Amino acid sequence: MIKSKIVLKKKPLKIYKNIHFFQDDDYYTDTFGLQWNEFIKTQIDNINHSNSYDRFFNETGLKNTQFRNKKVLEVGSGAGRFTNVLMKHTSAEVHSVDSSDSVFANLKNNIEYNKKRLNIYKATVYDLPFEEGQFDIVICFGVIQHTPNVKKTIDNLCKQVKPSGLIIVDFYPYNGFWTLISAKYILRPITKRLRYETVKSFYKKHIKKLIKIYYFFEKYKLNIFNRFIPIADISNTIPKNIGKELLEEMVLLDTIDIYTPKYDQPQKVKKIKSMIESNNFNILFAGKINYLNFTSTVVRGKKY
Ligand SMILES: C[S@@+](CC[C@H](N)C(=O)[O-])C[C@H]1O[C@@H](n2cnc3c(N)ncnc32)[C@H](O)[C@@H]1O
User: Fold this and answer.
1) Which of 58, 98, 238 for mutating ligand 1's site (highest number of atoms within 8 Å of CB)?
2) Pick from 121, 111, 119, 132: which is nearest to 93 by CA?
3) Residue 109's CATH number
4) Handedness of CA 155, 160, 163, 166 (dihedral sign)
């Protein structure tokens, strides 16, 4: 076990290779466990792209030196793309939580840091195993919209932050009624009830054709129709110039990530901002951040 000053409020059910298990089940996040163990390396930065690095530092607005001597809690770590950035580019002590079997993917991707300054926990944001108020920085990227009770998720994240500490979250934005008029929200009531394997096999078979259709509409400036093509939004979510093979893999992953989760609730910036404010935080930033070909919706707060 790591010699960390973080105090746990309960004992784990078991510890395996330093992953602390506070639950055996994945509950509603089982598809994420399957997804991240299958597409284990797809989004991890490599020589082809630094997507996770760019997103992490643009969204946090922090420099790597600002993580020195800091304790970071990451909730919903998935395959550990941001855990990996924290390990490679900062010296923070990191505590990464996920409620699915993706904790095994995170362990594989960050094995060299495990037991040094990385701790991985299988636990839910609704029952975090830490005593409150211990972390300098709490980050939660790409998760909030996938939880059943967003207010409770935010409240629980806020409780983990020390006085004067930071919370930084990103999420799918709700930009009015139009947000829900797309293939994604029309088909999800069906696809979220299908087995992960069924959705995956369908897309493995058809992804190349769907990508071709997407680019056809884009070429002729008919992008509006791409809302109704049931694949990920390639132009705004996939890094540029990564080669055909990685592109297809990334689009396949992102598409499965759209259609299989049990919950997908885009959020109004105003709402997330006021949820964080009501937990005694001063809002440092709330809105959209543009970098490379991406736009992220981010709220950052500092605890009083
Ligand atoms: C879309 S993935 C994002 C993973 C990672 N943050 C990233 O951006 O690549 C959402 C992750 O949140 C996790 N998650 C969802 N609900 C959770 C909960 N209640 N507690 C902890 N993790 C949760 C899922 O298991 C999944 O790995």
Assistant:
1) 98
2) 119
3) 3.40.50.150
4) negative
Residues 142 and 250 in one domain: no
Ligand 1 pocket member 113 (CB < 6 A): no
Ligand 1 atom with least separation from CA of 140: 6
CA of 284 to the centre of ligand 1 (A): 24
Tokens of 156: 């629980």
75 Cα–ligand 1 center, Å: 7
Query: Residue 44 sits in which domain range?
Result: 14-174+266-303
Question: Which protein residue's CA is at the shortest distance from atom 12 of ligand 1?
Answer: 76
Which tens digits make up the pLDDT trace of 183-240? 999 999 999 999 999 999 999 999 999 999 999 999 999 999 999 999 999 998 998 8
Total domain count for the chain? Answer: 2
Q: How much distance in Å is there from the Cα of 105 to the middle of ligand 1?
A: 12
| C-alpha span between 281 and 275 (Å, rounded) | 9
pLDDT tens-digit map of 21-73: 999 999 999 999 999 999 999 999 998 889 999 999 999 999 999 999 999 99
Q: Are residues 31 and 69 in the same domain?
A: yes
Please indicate, yes or no, if residue 6 is contained in any of the structural domains.
no
* pTM score: 0.96
